[in-house]
Amino acid sequence: MVPFLLVYCVQFIETGKGFSMYICIDFDGTIVDHRFPELGPPVPGALEWMRKFQEAEAKLILFTMRSDGGSGGDSLTSAVRYLEENGITLYGVNRNPTQVHWTNSPKAYGQLYIDDAAFGCPLIHPDGFHRPCVDWDIVGPGVMEKLKE
Ligand SMILES: [Mg+2]
User: Fold this and answer.
1) How do residues 88-110 score in pLDDT, each as one tens digit?
2) Cα–Cα distance for residue pair 138/131, rounded to 1 Å
3) Was domain 2-144 assigned CATH 3.40.50.1000?
4) CA of 88 to the centre of ligand 1 (A)
5) Are 11 and 138 contacting, i.e. CB atoms less than 8 angstroms apart?
């Protein structure tokens, strides 16, 4: 409860608004098809719903295993650029900038996590995709409902 109140206060000071949700979103299999370290084709609906979440004042945090400088090259930077080029303004990348005020935890703090690997996440397997991906027809409206609560 105390961390929640602190987050609320920090956000209120930052934005002058009440609480809006932090949503941590995975990349491969969630926003694009699995083609690591390349960028796969977009998962149907992902970018459109992310833009709607932004309009509803959600703060989007990219939460991915991608990184820079490893065997996959700068795959994290390429994911961040891809999102920027598609109208997504990230609040954080693999971390929630507000949480340094109240925790040393390395886990990015969010109220919601969207990840194709999450148990129970609805999946589809579009033609030509290498692996199943998030079914945004279900996830998008479900998250939107929570944003309006
Ligand atoms: Mg994934």
Assistant:
1) 999 999 999 999 999 999 999 99
2) 18
3) yes
4) 18
5) no
